[in-house]
């Protein structure tokens, strides 16, 4: 049986298909496309994902199939979601239906719950839609086994940031409410064509068994977090004045002079629970 390690070795030995030898679609700026071409990085990503035969794996934005090819070699079959029709046509020419199921669709509107609750998702996410796409995927966390994404390095740093650090913000809180995350690999800009102006990184996302805030309270939680970070330099006394008064801060044992960046996910959850209990 071919394993991810065997295939990674094949890549580094130069036995894989050279991407530069394929007639490629032109990268489209409006889709935020930068195509991964570095074979050593591709091998490292495959090793990090650790695909095994029988996995139900979905790739978002396959592009020129840099990850699709090694994944398909290990899995035999996988699903891809791609919005660019030229790339969809390119994939149809290269892969058979037995190898690849191609969903010509916008990932921001795609239903990732259709395969049950053991879905693995990977992708080189377009930088221009990475945040809304991550929030969209958060809706399906109960269906997902794990996710591995390549993103702008600064975005990954914000995702995994701890309280009281400059990178910690709304994205950190909203995602850490549902996922355990870690940055696992840095990807230099020269690994892409065209070369982007930013560095990239790979993040691993594992859904928590239970989100910190109950699913039904997510809309209120989101409103509180958004308000708190709406003016980062102002204190909670100002940013949350529409939610909490002095008595409320005392009941929560929360210093109203703190800023949003100083609160943990658990503290934002406590505010949400308090509001739910006291205001219906």
Automatic annotation (TrEMBL):
Binding-site positions, S-adenosyl-L-methionine: 34, 36, 61, 82, 106, 124
InterPro entries cross-referenced by the UniProt entry: KsgA/Erm, rRNA_Ade_diMease-like_C, rRNA_Ade_Mease_Trfase_CS, rRNA_Ade_methylase_Trfase_N, rRNA_adenine_dimethylase, SAM-dependent_MTases_sf
Keyword RNA-binding recorded: yes
Pfam families (UniProt xref): RrnaAD
UniProt GO MF annotations: 16S rRNA (adenine(1518)-N(6)/adenine(1519)-N(6))-dimethyltransferase activity; RNA binding
GO annotations of cellular component type: cytosol
Subcellular location: Cytoplasm
Keyword Glycoprotein: no
Keywords assigned: Cytoplasm, Methyltransferase, RNA-binding, rRNA processing, S-adenosyl-L-methionine, Transferase
Domain (Ribosomal RNA adenine methylase transferase N-terminal): residue spans on this chain: 41-209
Catalytic activity: adenosine(1518)/adenosine(1519) in 16S rRNA + 4 S-adenosyl-L-methionine = N(6)-dimethyladenosine(1518)/N(6)-dimethyladenosine(1519) in 16S rRNA + 4 S-adenosyl-L-homocysteine + 4 H(+)
Catalytic activity, EC: 2.1.1.182
Family indicated by similarity: Belongs to the class I-like SAM-binding methyltransferase superfamily. rRNA adenine N(6)-methyltransferase family. RsmA subfamily.
Function as written in the Swiss-Prot or TrEMBL entry: Specifically dimethylates two adjacent adenosines (A1518 and A1519) in the loop of a conserved hairpin near the 3'-end of 16S rRNA in the 30S particle. May play a critical role in biogenesis of 30S subunits.
Protein name: Ribosomal RNA small subunit methyltransferase A
Organism: Nitrosomonas nitrosa
Gene from which this protein is expressed: rsmA
